[in-house]
Structures are given as structure tokens and as C-alpha cells.
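ok so i was messing around last nite and threw this chain in just to see what happens. nothing serious, just curious
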Amino acid sequence: MSRPSVIIVGSGVGGLALAGMLTRQGCEVVVLERAAERRDGLAITIWPNALRAIRRSGGEDMYEAVLKVCEPIHSARMFSQSRGRLATIDLGFLTHRYGVTGQGATRAELLDALIAQAGVPVRFGAEVDRVGTDGTVVLTDGETLRADLVVGADGVGSTVRRSLLPPGQGDGRENPLESWQGVVDRGGIWDAGGADFHFGPLGTCGIMPLTGNRAYWFVDGSIRTPPTGRGWPDVVRELVAATPPEQLFPGQAWDRRPVRHWGRGRVTLLGDAAHPILPTIGQGACMALEDAGVLAARIAQDPDPVNALRRYEDDRYPRVEGHFKKARGMLRMRGLPGAVRDRVLAVLPDRTITRMFTDSALPLPEFS
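result:
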């Protein structure tokens, strides 16, 4: 059976993972990226649901390459500025059940690993103007490309998605969240083997381990005002103060309620282009990696490539809708009055808290 040709628009985590999965099937793949060079970003979490998708659809080599740039997250602790430690989640059960726990990685190192695994070079500086449902892709410089399939993996403001919408319809972003983030050598400031989350009057902040004795941190707050750490616990203030200016990043995130069919004809979408969710459950990149794994599997299984796209969308919708709702639910929990939120977390049984914070990280049955 001949393999379809595929154009992937966007060289983020999901697009690059899909490229590697499809080239391993023998597909002819082109990856287009409008930026002139790889964009760094800061850090992300990768959970067993995404890692199992990589392993099943991308193979052991891609899986091991990703793990090499990751730092395991063995636990998650939650603190309140008024009540101290609220809960500790032992993530060892993930390793016992799936062979791997959650992982922290810098986006730059993860992208480098996935570029090396993609099987094709990325065409940087190739900006897409519009896409046709017949598999035609027109670049802003007038060049026209064609493929059996086109996958828009170009983020929340996706050009590919806009090409599929009726004229004048907006991108429907909701629930804007703003924060500051940083990557820093943690030295002797913070030495936890897991992730820490602090709830306080200013919102939420978190700390996550990275390779090379580094830490990633985020603090809620307006991106118009650079962070000082004032109002947060000492460890947060010290990490913020120690972060070099070039490792500070103002972050914005949105969500959009997923729709059941996000592609048409020979075109589909992946990751944030299809279904952006809030970062409150740490599953944004994981959903893109799951998308890649499922889409690659459907293309391998179905001799009709267009039918494979519709099967992928049908199969993904319940999952992404569930994660969308969980992420919004976590936002509501974080937004409760401090005294109410802290009291609820303090009295919940460990098993309930563990399930609340890890259900979204469990692999799909076909990858487990």
C-alpha cells in the first residue's frame, strides 16, 4: 500500500512528533515553519499519556530520545500561605504502572530532540497564507505545495484553522491567563524531587525540576509588570531573583471549547490549533503528542487517508473535551476564596487528591 504524502504546518512539539511518526511509516513529509529559526519557549511537563503515545507510534528510539532531555517528577506538593503544606501526591504509582512518571523538560531541548527524530528537515521561514481542502498549501511568497494530507499544527492562532472557517469568523479564544515564567540554576535554593505548587492571595505559583540542576517556575500575574516574587514564599522570591533576564518569559494562555469536527477534506488540525486548553492541568503539549500518536496510528490503519483524518477527529473529540473540562475545573478550584480552597484540599483523602490531579495523565487504552 502506498503511503500518503503529508504537509505539516508548524514545527512545535506535536508537529515534529507527528513528522517522526509518519516518516517511520514511509510517508513523504514536509514540515513548514513560519519562524526563521527554532523558537525556544521555556518548559513543559510531559506525562505518561503523552510518553506512551510517543513510544507506540514513534518507536523506542523517539521515546528514549525524549526521555534523555527530561527530569522525572516523583511527587507533587501543594502549599497554602495561610495553612502550610496542604497535600503531597506520591507519583510512584505511575512508574509502577506505566514504567515512567511525569517529566519536566525545557521546550528548546525537547524540540531539538524531536527535530533529530523527525526524519526530514524543517523548512524555516515558510509562512503559510492559506490552505485548501484539496491539500493545496499556498505560502505568502506565492509558492504552492500539494499533498495527500495537510495537518495544521500551528498553534492557537492557526492559519490552517482560519482557512477552514467561514469568512469573518474569529478564533474564539477564551479565559486568558497571564503569568511570568523562568528557568534558573536552582543551586541550594530548592531541592525537591518533584513539583511544588503554592496557593496564595496573588494566585498560584509552581516550581518544577529540570535536567542539569535547573528549575522552572511560574507565578500568576500581569505580563505588563515584571515579577519580583514579592508576596510569595521565600523560595519563590529567591528563584525569581536568581533568574537571568534572558530566562524570564511573559506567558499568555487561552482555551477554546472543542468542536466535534475540526477538519475538512484533506485537512485536519492538531494540538492547540484544534483544541487549546488551559495549562492548569499541565496537558497542553501532552494533548498535542497524543493527537500525533492517534493520527499516525489512524493513517497507518486506514487505506483511505481522508477517512483516516475523520476517524482521528472522531476518536479524539471525547478525550480533548474531557481534558478541556478538567482544565476549566482546575481553574475554578484555583479561583475559589483562599480559605475555602485550602480547607477543601486539607480535608480531602490522599486517594481523592491523587485521582483529581493525575487522572488526566493516564494513557489512552490503545497506548497503555
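not much to say yet. The mean pLDDT is 94.
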